[in-house]
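Backbone-to-sequence.
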């Protein structure tokens, strides 16, 4: 059995990122673009900041109030995309969304984000698991304008 098929391991990944979120905390720096993302259905209300260096995601920060699923998924996302080009990040995002919505995806690209592979079983958690990701999509689109 693949360790990532073990619900307990998946839960541990989520709890680890919830209790020790990576890249959490905003910075006062005008070179970062910022977006606020919130959910009507949950406490989730995150500010997301991204610093682009040309085509590279140099840094990603976030802060606010969010449930375990939202915090952990945003923490994992930050680890996956920092240092990547926008194109590489978009590929990771597309695969993550495909996984969430039960389409074909490449497990290798998602690393710990695979912890959210059963989210579709609780439809009300999909928004929590995608809030930070949608914030990054928004910031990447704005940076292209």
């Amino acid at each position: 059995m693949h360790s990532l098929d073990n619900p307990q391991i998946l839960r541990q990944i989520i709890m680890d990122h919830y209790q020790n979120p990576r890249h959490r905390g905003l910075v006062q720096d005008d070179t970062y673009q910022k977006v606020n993302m919130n959910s009507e259905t949950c406490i989730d209300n995150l500010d997301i900041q991204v610093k682009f260096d040309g085509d590279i995601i140099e840094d990603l920060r976030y802060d606010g109030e969010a449930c375990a699923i939202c915090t952990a998924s945003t923490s994992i996302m930050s680890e996956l995309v920092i240092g990547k080009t926008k194109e590489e990040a978009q590929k990771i995002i597309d695969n993550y969304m495909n996984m969430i919505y039960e389409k074909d995806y490449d497990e290798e690209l998602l690393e710990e984000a695979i912890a959210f592979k059963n989210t579709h079983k609780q439809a009300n958690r999909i928004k929590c698991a995608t809030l930070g990701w949608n914030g990054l999509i928004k910031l990447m689109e704005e940076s292209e304008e």
